[in-house]
Amino acid sequence: MAKVAPSLLAGDFLKIGEEIERMAAAGADYLHFDIMDGRFVPNITFGQCILKATSRCSLPLDAHLMIVEPEKYIDEFAAVGAEIITVHAEACTHLHRAIQQIHAAGCKAGVALNPATSPECLRYVIGDIDLALVMTVNPGFGGQKLIPAAADKVADIKRMIDAAGSHAIIEVDGGVNTKTAPALVEKGASLLVAGSALYGAEDARAFVDALHAMN
Ligand code: DX5
Ligand code: ZN
């Protein structure tokens, strides 16, 4: 069964608590936080204060750091309640050290790859990570169309995980909906981030059920 992580970025910020609990009631498994700094990506979203407030909600928090020098903030995001902390390979000069830092802070460690980044950069850390996040759009904005080549990257990483005997799971992020998800799940993705399609769905429960049914 694939798990579902709604991206809060697509919710109504004026009623953030309700928007989270609406997703929990629909059966979502995590709450995905798109943290952007206006440097690694063009957009600026939210930071520690919002994450801290929302850690009182009923869903575990999946923090996707689209920021430069994420090492500076790992401990803070861990302290305010993130269960998973994902850093971008492109943003880390010392990726292995960042992964160790996330674990030392008591969180699950994820590494995200932009669409043009080769899965090869995961080869020597594949046994150390809990999650590989394949960006299926260019990071920075919600509501974009999925880049089809990303599905092949999911398959490549799945092969790498299996060959190494790693326990890492694959998360996909960007342009995920009930039409695009099946090919990604078939290639090995098991955690699906969904923003605009899920928050905009007429029936969020039916949307989550449809993704849960994929394997
Ligand atoms: C893009 C973000 C995604 C995005 C997902 O930078 O990482 O989480 O907001 O939103 P949709 O599903 O609308 O593409
Ligand atoms: Zn994200």
Report on the architecture of this protein.
With 215 residues, the chain is of the alpha/beta class. It is built from eight helices and eight strands; from the N terminus they run E-H-E-H-E-H-E-H-E-E-H-E-H-E-H-H. It has an eight-stranded parallel beta sheet with strand order 1-8-7-6-5-4-3-2. The radius of gyration is 16 Å and the shape is globular. Bound molecules: D-xylitol-5-phosphate and zinc ion. The site of D-xylitol-5-phosphate has 22 residues, from strand 2, strand 3, strand 8 and helix 7.
Write a brief structural summary:
With 215 residues, the chain is an alpha/beta fold. 32% of the residues lie in helices and 21% in strands.
List the helices and strands and how they pair.
Blueprint lengths: L2 E4 L9 H10 L5 E6 L11 H7 L6 E6 L7 H6 L2 E7 L6 H10 L3 E6 L17 E5 L14 H15 L4 E5 L7 H7 L1 E6 L1 H4 L4 H9 L3
Parallel strand pairs: 1-8, 2-3, 3-4, 4-5, 5-6, 6-7, 7-8
- Average of the residue pLDDT scores: 97
Q: What coarse outline follows from CA principal-axis ratios?
A: globular
Distance between the termini: 5 Å
Query: How many runs of DSSP E, i.e. beta strands?
Result: 8
Order of helices and strands: EHEHEHEHEEHEHEHH
The number of helical elements comes to 8
Molecules bound to protein? D-xylitol-5-phosphate, zinc ion
Rg estimate, integer Å: 16 Å
Low-confidence segments, given as residue ranges, are none
Biggest β-sheet: strands ordered side by side in the sheet: 1-8-7-6-5-4-3-2
Instruction: Give the helix/strand class.
Output: alpha/beta
In percent, how helical is the residue content?
25-40%
Largest sheet: 8 strands, parallel
What is the percentage of strand-forming residues?
15-25%
